[in-house]
Amino acid sequence: MNIAPTPLVFDRGEGAYLYDIDGNRLIDYYLGMGPMILGHSPDAVTHAVARQMQLGILFGGQSMIEAQAARLVCERVPCAERLRFASSGTEADQAALRLARAATGRRTIIKFEGHYHGWLDNVLWSTAPALDAAGPADAPHAVAGSRGQLPEGATALEILPWNDLERLVARLSAGDVAGVIMEAAMCNAGAVHPAPGYLEGVRDACTRFGTILIFDEVITGFRLAPGGAQERFGVMPDLATFGKAIANGFPVAAVAGRADLLDLFSTGGVVHGGTYNAQPLAMAATVASLTALTPDVYAGMERDGERLMSGIDDRLRSAGVKAVVTGFPQIFHVAFGIDEPAVNYRGLARMDRVAYRHFTAALLERGVRALERGAWFMSSCHDATVIDTTLDAVEDALTSLKAQGILPSA
């Protein structure tokens, strides 16, 4: 994870803050790698889970709290005619891929360079490949993400560059692709917007050629909008996967989508299991989290996140640092060493990661914890006061590092 200068050990979290075992209070933009959209230890969630603990922890059957949680998801997510709960985004993605193959009778899945869909052998390919191993930009090689992966895990997977509609349409025209899986906004490696018309074109091509379109909304779901990226961009996939913000830190994920596809789990012989799927404590957290995510909460995050984005950008420009700030108010990305927004993984790969890690280490010394990979997650607790303190720390860190000659100059 390249945590600099060293991994920390925490004692507790409250609102926008984490407290480590040495007593330091840190403004937190990790937010548990994204899930803590309501901040740390929100009363609404902790009280709901405490109440459920008195009723039962695990039933090995359905529960009313599960039905309530499912209803809330389906009311918010445009594509969600049905859904199944899981325990992690990795599991939800696997369920979606299995459905795509079962529904089409085809084998091949297309994923995109730089997109992340879990850590299992059949999808952990070309998530962050070294450019000297990645092959041509217009025909990327499948590069394993871990030692110990079986090479045959990629035999039914093809890697394409993202935001290249012409190349994807040409590949789909063969009529043998079961599914296309993508982050609708590329938010794991960076915070890259889809090109104008790209998602619409992908949707049209998948429909024409009988391919299942899967949006991985594990990061974007319930964060970019109540209905996720598909609501924000107005493009509806056949299936979508969710996690992270759905339950504010509890291990909950879901696969949702067309009824005819999800019904294959109940009547079509497609297996989806998991002892802890829809575990009542996690369902209580889901209900409490989604209920708390009101229009006013989203409006506040949009406003405050935009102020933080623009404030960081202003201070980078004032300091003469070569960098770009891109993304969305609720999850954005800061990249050193590039001077224009990336449109795909190859653009992001030109970032100066070493200089950025120096920056996050300097921020940590000033009481701000930001992800070393460049992502900044907002919560409803990051109010004007928190942002003012953050921007002061950013300005001071940039001044110090610039004087040391560490940062790339514009």
Question: What report would you give on this structure?
Answer:
This protein is 37% helix and 16% strand. It has 410 residues and is α/β, with parallel strands linked by helices. It folds into 2 domains: 10-37 and 294-403, Alpha-Beta Complex (Aspartate Aminotransferase, domain 1); 43-292, 3-Layer(aba) Sandwich (Aspartate Aminotransferase, domain 2). The strands form 3 sheets. The protein has a 7-stranded mixed sheet, with helices on both faces. α4 packs parallel to α5 and α10 runs parallel beside α13.
> Largest sheet, order of strands side by side?
4-10-9-8-7-5-6
CATH class of the largest domain: Alpha Beta
Average pLDDT number: 96
What percent of the residues sit in helical stretches (DSSP H or I)? 25-40%
The tally of helices reads: 13
Based on CA inertia axes, which overall geometry fits?
A: globular
**What is the CA-atom radius of gyration, in angstroms?**
21 Å
CATH homologous superfamily title of the largest domain? Type I PLP-dependent aspartate aminotransferase-like (Major domain)
- Regions with pLDDT < 50 over 5+ consecutive residues? none
Provide a short characterization of the protein structure.
With 410 residues, the chain is of the alpha/beta class.
SSE topology sketch:
Layout: E1 10-14, E2 17-20, E3 25-28, H1 43-55, H2 64-76, E4 82-86, H3 89-104, E5 108-112, E6 157-160, H4 165-172, E7 177-182, H5 198-209, E8 212-217, H6 228-233, E9 239-242, E10 253-257, H7 259-262, H8 264-267, H9 280-292, H10 295-318, E11 323-328, E12 331-336, H11 345-348, H12 353-365, E13 368-369, E14 375-377, H13 384-403
Parallel strand pairs: 3-13, 5-6, 5-7, 7-8, 8-9
Antiparallel strand pairs: 1-2, 2-3, 4-10, 9-10, 11-12, 12-14
Helix pairs in contact: 1-9, 2-9, 4-5, 10-13, 12-13
